[in-house]
UniProtKB/TrEMBL annotation:
<dbReference type="Pfam" id="PF00355">
    <property type="entry name" value="Rieske"/>
</dbReference>
<feature type="domain" description="Rieske">
    <location>
        <begin position="10"/>
        <end position="105"/>
    </location>
</feature>
<keyword id="KW-0411">Iron-sulfur</keyword>
<dbReference type="InterPro" id="IPR017941">
    <property type="entry name" value="Rieske_2Fe-2S"/>
</dbReference>
<dbReference type="InterPro" id="IPR036922">
    <property type="entry name" value="Rieske_2Fe-2S_sf"/>
</dbReference>
<keyword id="KW-0479">Metal-binding</keyword>
<keyword id="KW-0408">Iron</keyword>
<keyword id="KW-0001">2Fe-2S</keyword>
<protein>
    <submittedName>
        <fullName>Nitrite reductase/ring-hydroxylating ferredoxin subunit</fullName>
    </submittedName>
</protein>
Length: 108
């Protein structure tokens, strides 16, 4: 397992950590991240909206997009791009692998 906060593969816990939730906040090293389940797909994102830092764990997920709870902006969960009409950087995304021994995050 990689050291927290460093590049590498980090075990996050069991694959059933979501329960019935779509958004699960986690801390990896000093990074505040958000695990997002959209259908069968799981991805990790930075937890703070790149616009004004809103806590995205208070948002909602649907149709392949993560919606900011403070603004009308939403982010594509495939590439992090922001919805039309907004001019700030994309949301940072991190790969999550669902394996027999749980969820694995890839940083780097």
């Amino acid at each position: 397992m990689a050291e927290p906060g460093c590049a590498g593969r980090i075990h996050l816990g069991p694959a059933d950590a979501f329960g019935d939730r779509a958004l699960v906040p986690v801390t990896v090293g000093r990074r505040s991240l958000l695990l997002v389940r959209d259908g069968e797909r799981i991805v990790a994102t930075e937890r703070a909206c790149p616009h004004e830092g809103a806590d995205l764990s208070l948002g909602r997920c649907g149709g392949g997009r993560l919606h900011c709870p403070r603004h009308l902006a939403s982010f594509n969960l495939r590439d992090g791009s922001v919805s039309p009409g907004w001019s700030f950087r994309p949301l940072r995304l991190f790969a999550v692998e669902v394996a027999p021994d749980g969820l694995w995050l890839t940083l780097g």
